[in-house]
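Hi, here's the filled form for the chain we discussed.

Project: internal
Contact: R.S.
Residues: 67
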Amino acid sequence: MPDPRTLRDSTQIVLPCDLLESVRDDIEAEFVVSVHRKAGDTCRIIGSPVEIRAVSDFLARQGISLR
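And the returned structure, exactly as it came back:
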């Protein structure tokens, strides 16, 4: 059975909501993902591993680092 942490890491991106403000509409329009605000100022982008990889690449092109 796979490790749940591995699956979670491949199906979500967690980042501060203020980083997401300028590109959230573009992400939701271009990719099949859901964006949810967590407690505080943290947002989660949730989707399939393929979509999360594509969103990660998109964010990198926008200058938003995930690490």
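Let me know if anything looks off before we file it.
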